[in-house]
Amino acid sequence: MSTTTIHLLGGSQTDFAVNWHREGKGFDVLVGAVVGATLAAANIASDEIGVIHVGNAFGQLFTGQAQLGGMPATIIPELWGIPSGRHEAACASGSMALLAAMADLESGRYDCALVIGAELEKTVPGDEAAGYLGSAAWVGHEAQDTKFVWPTMFAELADEYDRRYGLDDTYLRAISELNITNARTNPLAQTRNWTFTPDSFGDDDTANPPMVGRLRRQDCSPMTDGAAAVILVSDRFLARRNDLRPEEHAVVSGWGHRTVGLSMAQKLRASADDQYVFPHVRQTMLDALARAGLPDIDAVDGIEVHDCFSMSEYMAIDHLGITGPGESWKAVAGGDIARDGRLPVNPGGGLIGGGHPVGATGVRMVLDAYKQVTGQAGAYQVPDARRFATLNLGGSATTAASFIVASQTKRS
Predict the structure, then answer these.
(1) To the nearest 5 percent, what fractions of the chain are helix, strand and coil?
(2) What are the tens digits of pLDDT across the range 301-338?
(3) Radius of gyration, alpha carbons of the chain
(4) How many CA atoms lie within 13 A of 369 on its CB side?
(5) Residue 201, pLDDT score
(6) How confident is the model at residue 412 (pLDDT cuts 50, 70, 90)?
(7) Contact in structure between 3 and 210 (CB atoms under 8 Å)
């Protein structure tokens, strides 16, 4: 088993409220902006990068551009000749790029990795965009009679919860409201300046229109353009660069990664006799905690959760172990997941409030976890955070990935 420690030196995120297509800008400008800001934030020169991993899910569909592993070298001459590749696992694409970069460092092949997650989704009308995103389901086998594949899938998950445990939609609306409220204090969140009323989080068909089944508009994360990137390095790199400030570093102390079949129906049949709807998601979190040497989820100070829909966060709450199976409503009603609660979830707004550029989300989660444990989260800082977890999902939880990010130093 590898004894290499994975250090996180810093990173950057673009403003998720920006519509890059409307401004006439493509992947070249997007990647160039986030890489430049990331190198500056981590105090790393471009010629120190040994390998690059890019998370992107739908580049060909939204822009016609494939081979995005080549984009960094296209726009930054110093990266010409540096090994680079693109990773795809739907909404977990960024996490797959992170895992690949960690494996490279652990193997000793490289000592400094640049990990980028990027997506452009505003290039086509909403209905067409929803169709592109639907390609991450089992095409030709499920959700064939709807253009809104993912609202349909997560409405089905909500119905499954209702069958197994009972589900009051009030708690789904409360999750959406909490994440959008948290996003108000995040200067890079997509919805930070959007206008909402109390009716926006209720059952008013005008203020919060129905989407599919029991899901309404504010239960859904928005289409988003954006990118995030981080620098990961080995112990060997830090031995050479002993000028870097340890109080601005974090470590990836644990990780989990599980994959199951594509279709939602398969997953629900497989778990019919289990206490959890998605046992593999539960195991992903347990794997990450075990690798970090932690006994349970209460050993972390907060969590970045994959709320592509309010229902995915509702599912995550019990699968993380914040509550027992089917009891997620208790954490919502009791304020446990609020920024000042027992275990804050998505203090910067998550996907519903912060935005969801699909290929960037896994990287953005780890970046926000880094900010929290190094005291750099600004107005959405969780006080005294030392450990933060992430849970990133791809498709109908076909891919699940989790990371534990921990501070290396004590802060006064």
Answers:
(1) 40, 20, 40
(2) 999 999 999 999 999 999 999 999 999 999 999 999 99
(3) 20
(4) 33
(5) 97
(6) very low
(7) no
